[in-house]
Amino acid sequence: MSRIAYVNGQYRDLRDASVNIEDRGYQFADGVYEVCEVRGGKLVDFPRHMARLERSLRELRIEMPMTLRALDVVMHEVVRRNRIGYGLVYLQVTRGVARRDHPFPLRPVKPAVVVTARSLNFSKNQATAAHGIGVITVPENRWPRVDIKSISLLPNVLAKQQARDSGAYEAWYVDGNGEVTEGSSSNAWIITTDGRVVTHPIGHDILAGITRDVLKETLAALQIRLEERPFTPEEAYGAAEAFVTSASQIVMPVVRIDGRTVGNGKPGPISMRLREEFHRFADFS
Ligand code: PMP
Predict the structure, then answer these.
(1) pLDDT class for 2, splitting at 50, 70, 90?
(2) Over the chain, what is the mean pLDDT?
């Protein structure tokens, strides 16, 4: 079956779908994006993703390209047309097409919208979680506004590749204070030996993950203690458990950090429980 993308008002076969070479997303990475998990053909936590999208756009002074209601219809339609049961739907909004020049276009242009979707392999993801993943730490080298979900992801791409090159799955950024901020495409968490769950507080220096947000509600409901504070790689090496969160991985246990074994080297019981319980607290639409 061929894949279908939504591109600026049209549903197109992916092979024929294209954007203008003067799209500011292509020229300057001048745009934002969202990724939602799809489960049972439904979008997970869609309203929260849309709220974050609106915030990212506002911060960059890009107009909403269409009403929320219309975006809702388009994103669900792309999922439906691609017959996604389990997978991801991707939305990108850029400032639009204009002759290449750094300042915003003098005459306002319409923001450009692309939506794609793809299936994920559920059993493969479950198998990865059953083994747990390795992470490496890398120096924080991104701009100081990573709370904006910008498509400018070169440092993230390079960090992820560095992780893969060293046999790990994810890279955790360590800032100038020697503290872990987040992963290249996930939020970073540890669980202390006395059962407290720790993750970096929200600010300009991490992306406020939607999975992170929903997991906070999961933790509260399960009466597991949460500490929103930075932690160091050294604290993480000695943690009982560690994991990462993102829309595509939900709760993914971490069993190795910089080559050191976390806990007993197997996915921890609290991490696995959170992974299992997460969707009870998520919204489906
Ligand atoms: N941090 C970064 C840098 C990310 O790219 C992502 C994934 N988009 C996250 C955190 C997790 O966010 P979410 O739970 O909304 O997918």
Answers:
(1) confident
(2) 98
**Domain count of the fold of the chain:** 2
Closest Cα to residue 85, out of 41, 120, 127? 41
Task: Look at residue 151 and tell me if it is in a domain.
Answer: yes
Question: Does the CB atom of residue 155 touch ligand 1 within 6 A?
Answer: no
Confidence of residue 273 (pLDDT cuts 50, 70, 90): very high
- Average pLDDT on 255-268 reads 98
Q: Is the dihedral of CA 216, 240, 192, 137 positive or negative?
A: negative
| Cβ(45)–Cβ(71) below 8 Å | no
Tens-place pLDDT, residues 9-25? 999 999 999 999 999 99
Summarised one tens digit per residue, pLDDT across range 175-227 is 999 999 999 999 999 999 999 999 999 999 999 999 999 999 999 999 999 99
166 and 256 inside one domain: yes
Q: Please list, in sequence order, all residues whose beta carbon lies within 8 angstroms of the beta carbon of residue 227, skipping any fewer than 6 positions away.
A: 196, 197, 198, 199
Instruction: Compute the distance from residue 247 Cα to the ligand 1 centre, in Å.
Output: 7
- State how beta strands 87-94 and 112-119 pair: antiparallel
- Asked if the structure places residue 266 within a domain, the reply is yes
Pair 245, 212: CB distance under 8 Å = yes
Return the ligand 1 atom nearest residue 146 CA: 3
Asked about 149 being catalytic, the answer comes back as yes
Which of 95, 120, 145 marks a domain boundary?
120
* Closest ligand 1 atom to 213 CA: 14
Q: Can you give the residue range of the structural domain that contains 45?
A: 4-120
The reply to whether ligand 1 has any atom less than 6 angstroms from the CB of 150 is no
The single residue of 110, 149, 160, 216 carrying the catalytic annotation is 149
Are 206 and 268 in a shared domain? yes
Cα(106) to ligand 1 centroid in Å equals 33
Q: Tell me, using a 6 A CB cutoff, whether residue 56 lines ligand 1.
A: no
pTM of the model as a whole: 0.98
In a domain, 285, yes or no: no
The answer to whether residue 274 is domain-embedded is: yes
Q: Answer yes or no: is the C-beta of 35 below 6 A from any ligand 1 atom.
A: yes
